[in-house]
Amino acid sequence: MTSGTPGGTFNHHAAAPSTVNRGDSKNYTKRGRVATGLSLAAGFLIVEWVVHFINAFVFGGALSNYGIRPLDFNGIWGIFTAPLLHANFEHLASNSVPGAIFCFLIGLSGRKAWWQVTIATVLVAGVGTWLFGGPGTSHIGASSLVYGWLAYLVVRGVFNRSLLQIALGAALGFAYSGLVWGVLPVYEGVSWQGHLFGALGGILAGMTITSDDPVKGTAKQ
């Protein structure tokens, strides 16, 4: 708030309004979304690998006991910790590449969308695995996230009515079509329940998360 002194004068010339260059704003939006996607992909890799190194070399693998233990209320917290844990480096590596790719692609829609998809996948995959994973077993690994992210990317275009997203989803579905066997009980020692319910979580997210985060441009004075 501005005040004047008695007998004083005010400057009646208003400041020029701020403007946003549409071209600059569009470029800023693209750069911002790419940066968001890259940061989420990098964050996923860093967290997964740091946790695995700590588990392997500090705790001697003991953290792997914090997976999802179906129908065991003492192991229900594994719903949130299981995606961070892996049996060995091969297990981790197999989830790292597709996980980073899907993180980046979802991140292009913004952090909010990524968090919503991820939380939906973790909850649906976790609860489904806890209920139907089989007593006496323990489920770990980020593959439930990988399946959820992929399922979301495959179906979201249909619900968003976006031809670009439909085309991307079709390409990803074709490229990763081999993963469909992971939702069936055909491989011993593989948590097909985590894969199945992870995919269902991703489909649910695709049906309900239909908008991107807004990215604001910078104003020019």
UniProtKB/TrEMBL annotation:
Ion transport found in the keyword field: no
Gene Ontology molecular-function annotations: serine-type endopeptidase activity
Gene Ontology cellular-component terms listed: membrane
Gene3D superfamilies xref list: Rhomboid-like
Domain of life: Bacteria
Membrane topology: Multi-pass membrane protein
Keyword Transmembrane helix: yes
Main localization, broad class: membrane
Limits of the Peptidase S54 rhomboid domain: 76-209
Residue span of region Disordered: 1-24
Pfam family, one: Rhomboid
Annotated keywords: Hydrolase, Membrane, Protease, Transmembrane, Transmembrane helix
Compartment list: Membrane
Matches recorded under InterPro entries: Peptidase_S54_rhomboid_dom (IPR022764), Rhomboid-like_sf (IPR035952)
One GO term of the biological process aspect: proteolysis
Residues spanning the membrane: 40-64, 84-106, 113-133, 139-159, 166-184, 190-210
Family: Belongs to the peptidase S54 family.
PANTHER family: RHOMBOID PROTEIN 2, RHOMBOID-RELATED PROTEIN
Protein name: Membrane protein
Organism the protein comes from: Corynebacterium flavescens
